[in-house]
Protein 1
Amino acid sequence: MNKHDRIAKVLREGEANGDGWSLELNTSSGRTVYAVAVAQNNRRSRTGPTWSYVFENDGWTSIDLGTPGSFETLKSAYSTIGLSPKDIKRVLISHGHSDHDGTVSEFLDDSEAELWAHQSYQPLKNYIPWEINYRKGSILQKELNRIAEEKIEPSKEDDSRSETDKNYFENRKLTVVTKHLEDGDEFSDLKVMSTPGHSPDQICLVLDDFIFTGDHILPEITPHPTSKMVFRNTISEKLPEFLKDPSELYGLGTYLDSLGKVIQLGDEYTVLPAHRLFNKSSFNWSGVERAGDIIHHHEKRLNRMVDKLQNKTSNLEETTKGIFEKSKLLGSNLYAAMSEIVAHLELLEDTRDITITTGGEISIQGSGTNYKEYISGLLKPGP
Ligand SMILES: [Zn+2]
Ligand SMILES: [Zn+2]
């Protein structure tokens, strides 16, 4: 037992992987928060269901909905708490990934609800995420895309899935955001924290002693960090001023800074994540110390990378092979693995622990230990 283990009143029992569970929770001040797990539709995702949270805060408020195609599942889940979309006054999206905002357009059509999201959400939802970046924005990005083109066969897309995705992106462009959230905003008892890194528009929401973390902090799995972003010119010119320099919204350093920010909140907060609250037939309650665990995971990876670079120059492909097992580098997995390594190399470049030549050769600079100081600074507990 840890102090975040709480007795949840089970309103509906679901599957071992979390699908279908419906819970009633209480904050320290006695406020009721409903948590329902919406199974992913047509997805072979390892993250499991998306948890949608519902509570009263100047009217019924929902956080996150689920994947495209899961609207009926969401409605059935809401019926277990005695609500329907028509009862909801506003929907807050933790970030613009399809497993969170996948059914927003149906929800808005079926209700009077407003849509609230981080101020970056609206301008970015007009684009398909993988089409916005200028793939030659840095030596590492150029290398990543060169190797990917050379080594990865384009996958034969499953037609029904790409059709669902297409509809999702088209519908998403048309949704209207009523409130553009910024760090520090407060609405009645709900506080907004901007926590970019996993996604540029990722927010955490604090209510009493609960923190709804979206994909910023997850139990069991380490959320995928973004790598740095250079927007294509044609897109950049259409973006608002605050997005023109995206360095504070993307990248591993940005992500780790945002984890440090949550640690500063202090130990009394309970993390309510968008995935894995329940898995393998048991609950995963945790506090902000989970943010520290995730920082340690990345620190270990950085340690291994720096170790391998001592006395030996390397490049992106070799560094990736040195960190991941062969089985994790097959097909499109290679891209995911390399982009994760790019994010870590970018951080080591920022802390001046490595240099990268224009030919993509990577070597240690100085003692290669500056990053350790940076990380221990993040882990210092808050007031
Ligand atoms: Zn996500
Ligand atoms: Zn997610």
Protein 2
Amino acid sequence: MRGLTPDYEMKTPKNIKEALQILSTNSGEWQLFAGGTDLMVSYEAGKLTHKKFLNINALHELKGFVVNDQEILIGGGCTFTQIKNHPIIQQEFPLLVNSAEATGAIAIQNRATIGGNIANMSPAADTPPVLIAYNADLILLSSKGYRIVNYTQFHKGYKRADLRADEIIMAIKIHRHQGISHSYYRKVGTRAAQSISKVCLAGVACVFRGQNIEWIQIGLGSVAPIPMQAIQTEHFLNEKDLTHENIQQARNILMDEIHPIDDIRSEAKYRKTVAGNLLTEFLESLKK
Ligand SMILES: Cc1cc2nc3c(=O)[nH]c(=O)nc-3n(C[C@H](O)[C@H](O)[C@H](O)COP(=O)(O)OP(=O)(O)OC[C@H]3O[C@@H](n4cnc5c(N)ncnc54)[C@H](O)[C@@H]3O)c2cc1C
């Protein structure tokens, strides 16, 4: 049942310093509120865990992009519309454009932030597999300073992650010039828009002459309790030739490595088969 508005409090800090100060003095009492697209669904369902919200949606410190020769930093408060329209992202990180476009529909993309997508910790979210593929780092800020966590190490279990209640996801850092020759993204859902994925696979690779995989990195959504890196499949594929046998074996390894569940959107068996099909499609595309 829907929550009652007067039961809740919303505070809008003037700047990030004030936000961090409030979070540090009342650790755990205040919950961050960015675009609100996940939180408002919980509100409607009467499932909010907190009564006090810190509105960080207007904080300019979380909004921009910083680009230098080595990396791009995407502010945790950037929306998916801002991300998909950024020229460097369009040129160098097309999978982020793909995942932004696959998120909800235009109205959601205008409002939903990448920091909120990460902090919501859904195993079915569309951008986390891309952050795994690009080996992104998270910059987490608290009143004590900042720390950097590699995104592949961030999730610790279903809806548990290496993120303290007094921390804000300040930015996502991705290295440029990774030597990627091929990239692939596919979300399988019930519809093209406004659907939660049944399976999502994002992958990048460096391939020599359409024949030999120098290295490969693969992220998946909706196939485990957390957004998952296909480590065993990657280990098998690194430095392998793109033969029919190797592609078949990689498919089998991936299907053993993932642990999807039956739920209202799909069945575990279907998800395994689809994940195998997506990997095959990705690997076949590396020959071109
Ligand atoms: C109709 C609809 C369709 C949707 N479709 C998709 C979809 O296709 N794919 C998909 O992945 N998601 C989808 N979503 C979910 C949602 O839009 C995304 O997860 C979105 O990115 C959440 O961002 P937000 O800014 O709205 O987060 P909020 O709702 O404001 O917050 C979500 C969580 O993140 C925390 N948080 C927010 N910002 C930060 C920060 N900077 N640092 C630390 N913690 C933070 C909040 O405290 C909260 O726990 C959909 C939602 C709706 C309502």
